[in-house]
Amino acid sequence: KLNGQKYLTLPYVVVVKTRFQIQTGQGEYRSVLDCFRKIVRQEGVGTLYRGIIAPILVEAPKRAVKFAANEQYSKWALQLSGERRMTQALSVATGVCTGLTEAFVVVSFELVKIRMQDKANAQRYKNSLDSALQVLRAEGPRAFFRGLEATLWRHGAWNGGYFGVIHWVKAVLPRAESPQAAMLNNFAAGAVGGAVGTALNTPFDVVKTRIQ
Q1: What is the largest CA-CA distance in the chain?
Q2: For 5, phi and psi rounded to 5 degrees?
């Protein structure tokens, strides 16, 4: 809580992550809580939502591409390998391919988000649309693919780890005998997979943020 109000929601975490990744050396922020407090006190609560339009707009197509691509890559992997069922190795491989495909969808939106959340741009852009237009005018359309290589690494690492770990966790968990047990298994697999994926992709995420 900050100033008696609850602030731990996804938009705030996204802004804090960006601020931490941009700063160098000792930096302005000592911890996550310190970052929250300074942003609220110095820039206002609204800053915690700065740049949130881009992630919202890309969320639906990103998820659609992620799961549609993974399903298609899984079918191709089974055909090429001759396996009857997905193995962990195939899950990792199809996950990486999924991430590489997903990266092309998100990279432009990520650039706008990062530009908006950078404290140095506080007075430069009115909103996300203005940010995109200014980038287009000043840097050209190729600027929207700035950081693509790092984005490919980021999403390849995340999805490879995510789908690979999910396959492994489900294999070691007891077989679900009820819908409730299946839901718990899926929750556990997704939670562990997401944690591992995030640990794998964070270095590439920092690089992507610095480049963009």
Answers
A1: 60
A2: -120, 150
Q: Which of 59, 39, 48 is nearest to 15 (CA)?
A: 48
The residue count of the chain comes to 212
Give per-residue pLDDT as tens, 74-123: 999 999 999 999 999 999 999 999 999 999 999 999 999 999 999 899 88
**The residue to which tokens 């700065």 are assigned:** 50
pLDDT band at 198 (very low <50, low <70, confident <90, very high): very high
Q: Return the exposure string of 140-170: e unless at least 16 CB atoms fall within 10 Å of the residue's CB, then b.
A: eeebbebbbebbbbbbbbbbbbbbbbbbbbb
How many CB atoms are closer than 10 A to CB 14? 18
- For 125-148, how does the pLDDT look when each residue is reduced to its tens digit (9 = 90+)? 999 999 999 999 999 999 999 999
Residue 78's alpha-carbon distances to 65, 83, 188, in angstroms, are 20, 5, 26
One-letter identity of residue 106: V
- Phi, psi (5° rounding) for residue 174? -60, 145
- State how far the alpha carbon of 21 is from the alpha carbons of 15, 105, 180, in Å: 10, 22, 39
From the list 23, 27, 48, 26, the residue with the least C-alpha distance to 37 is 48
What is the DSSP secondary structure assignment for residue 45, as one 8-state letter? G
Whole-model pTM? 0.86
Task: Give me the DSSP letters along 157-182.
Answer: HHHHHHHHHHHHHHHHSPPP-SHHHH
Distance from C-alpha of 30 to C-alpha of 151, rounded to nearest angstrom: 27
